[in-house]
Amino acid sequence: MLPIINVIFSSLNVHARQNFARATFQFVILFQPILLSFLLYMMLRGSNPVHAGEYIVVSSGLMNLWSSIIFSSAGDIDRERYMGTLECIYVSPSDFRLIFLGHVLGNLLLGLFSMVLSSICVVFLFGLQVHIENPAEFLCAFTLSILSFTAISLLIGLIFTLSRSARILMNCLEYPIYILCGLVFPISVLPKALQFIAYVLSPTWAAQLLRESMAGIQNIRIFYFDLIALSILILVYFLLTIVLFKKIDRRVRIDGTLGVH
Amino acid sequence: MDQEKQSEYIIEVQNLVRDYVSHKGVFRKKKHTVRAVNNLSFFVKKGEIFGLLGANGAGKTTTIKILTTLLAPTSGSVSILGLDPMTQAKALRPRISFVFGGERSLYWRITGRENLNYFSDLYHISNEIKKRRIPELLELVGLKDHADERVETYSKGMKQRLQIARCLVNDPEIIFLDEPTIGLDPIGARDLRNIVKMLAKQGKTVLITTHYMYEADEICGRVAIVNKGKLVALDTPANLKAQTEHTSVIELHLNEKDDALLKGLNQIKEIDQIRANHTDQYESVSLQCKEPRTVFPQLFPLIGTGHLLSVRTREATLEDVYIHYVSQSPH
Ligand SMILES: Nc1ncnc2c1ncn2[C@@H]1O[C@H](COP(=O)(O)OP(=O)(O)OP(=O)(O)O)[C@@H](O)[C@H]1O
Ligand SMILES: [Mg+2]
């Protein structure tokens, strides 16, 4: 157990620092939360809905979390491939998934920081009110949200070891999620087929749950249903990570996609 | 160790083949296959420094990647320490290590010491051993005074030395070095060769690739010359040099190109091989022969209007042997 924790922690430490030294990542962590909150604020200002503060905090927070955790973690794989370190860490005796979990958790910590930043922005800059009506349920939803983001990152990261063109795919991954998961508009405005995709993506459920627990839960049954749906998704993601790894590990070595030389 | 009793060889490569398949075109229409390693076989003993030589694209890096569990062979069999790198990677990985030359394979934004610390953690090295080993390794590669500076501030040579230290954090039994001295200054390269020799003295097995023939000659017990993925020669450097009958080389440096001379040289039957080379300062012509004495009388009358800058004879080096084998095999 101890070596496992040591590997995760060591990897978290190294990668959080490697990443924080990158200018793009600094932008994502420091400026993007402010920009996104501002954008959402401007969009909502005209309609002046109730719970605007909660809406903006949740949306910009999750958008940032998505950027910092998933986008950056998947990007890490590609960066390490070009740095030549991907091969080095891959052949170490530590399970690659644990090493990568360290990456993801490092990015998570930085992502949480930007969530706080965007909340501060909403409250102090725009003077909007942010309440948490049901704190216990909020905490529950928040924990699950983070777990689900971690699980997706692990899965996407592993898939990215498969291809040297991961970077192109990754660039297509960031913004569509904002729309697909109902972070900007309610998903009910999406076509049916897209709604289906939205419901297998955990941020959709996370956003719903967080908003509801902040604004005040209207129907506790629906809330718990959503909570269970999110938990099942997390389980599925983790299971996929475990099951697919063996296959991916074989494929990666057959295709030789870990290095660029 | 059981495995080593079974076989005197620590690395066994038999009929190894590796194809790379790439797809060209937007819709993956065209399949393109490159045979990087073609029926390669060789065996390495414990404690040996074994050189893998060959031109760019000969398949050296591909071979090393297969031996270090990074790449699957297309066919053939590989056994390292009695283990199959493809199916028994888990048992094999803690016992081996590799360096792909150059400045990569390190985290540039953290310090040298932190790099070693991180890789030690990945290899489950205990704190106790880490505390002792990391300073030792930094000392060994001469980075003690720069250990706490960020790697991005290091020179190329320092990065390369840090890579050597990195590959030793797990005290591996076999070390794979792919062009470890590329781009190093002469003293840096010599220091590195000394480290490699010392490691072999400690009983570690080293498989090394290099494009510097004098380097292979100096440190390798045996070398394999690979051309287009195929083995073309394998022996000790001394035997290889003796095997090729061309034991001497006459080198002429001329101030201008002399086609008549080259034509004339082709007529001298005592000359076994002619190589003409152009450099910024002069035109050089190398003649391989068994006995320079028999060539000289016929040589000088051929030199035309051009100015002969220098003539010298020397023994054939490993480089001559290498060129002999690599240029001879069909392209
Ligand atoms: N990932 C890859 N995909 C497709 N072809 C590859 C790949 N890696 C190597 N090759 C091809 O395989 C052949 C052998 O390459 P390899 O890198 O093993 O040679 P090498 O002997 O290490 O050369 P060098 O001295 O230049 O490092 C080359 O023709 C190369 O183009
Ligand atoms: Mg190479």
Automatic annotation (TrEMBL), chain B:
Key word DNA damage present: no
Domain ABC transporter: 11-253
Coiled-coil stretches noted in the UniProt entry, renumbered to this chain: none
GO function terms (MF aspect): ATP binding; ATP hydrolysis activity
Protein name per its UniProtKB record: ABC transporter ATP-binding protein
UniProt keyword list: ATP-binding, Nucleotide-binding, Transport
Cited Gene3D superfamilies: P-loop containing nucleotide triphosphate hydrolases
InterPro entries from the UniProt entry: AAA+_ATPase, ABC_transporter-like_ATP-bd, ABC_transporter-like_CS, ABC_transporter_ATP-binding, P-loop_NTPase
